[in-house]
């Protein structure tokens, strides 16, 4: 476009606008202005509400972020509280497992020794009973032997007296 054409176009637009304006009545203009101002008022109200909602959302996000940080701190505290207990429990469990492993062969050894002890005790008691029987028999034999010897001595003594 050239600079001389531009003023010509604006003039023609103004003329068309004027002719259009003149065709519109004053009432139509008032209605259009009131509709336009109502539309602008509604747009302003919508923008105002959008801004309020944005601010509330920002505030809510701020509270959520703060709460998230607080909960993260609480979680960290819980984990640090639980960790020493877990470690101690783990150590004690490992010791229990270790002692349990040592106890298994010891238990088998104890059972074996108990069986051996029982067998040895049974053998001892049997030999002891046998010894008691033998002593009893010996006492009987010694008693009988003494009786026989006394009897023999008496017989010899009588035979000496009778002779």
Q: What is this entry, summarized?
A:
With 163 residues, this protein is mainly alpha-helical. The protein has helices at residues 5-23, 26-162.
Shape field: rod-shaped
Category from helices, strands and their pairing: mainly alpha
| Quaternary | single chain
Strand content is under 5%
Catalogue the unreliable spans: 1-5
From the N-terminal CA to the C-terminal CA, the straight-line distance is 192 Å
What is the ordering of alpha helices and beta strands?
HH
Count the DSSP helices. Answer: 2
User: What share of residues is helical?
Assistant: over 70%
Largest sheet: none
Radius of gyration: 63 Å
In round numbers, the mean pLDDT is: 84
Tally the beta strands.
0
Throw out a few tags for this protein.
163 residues, mainly alpha
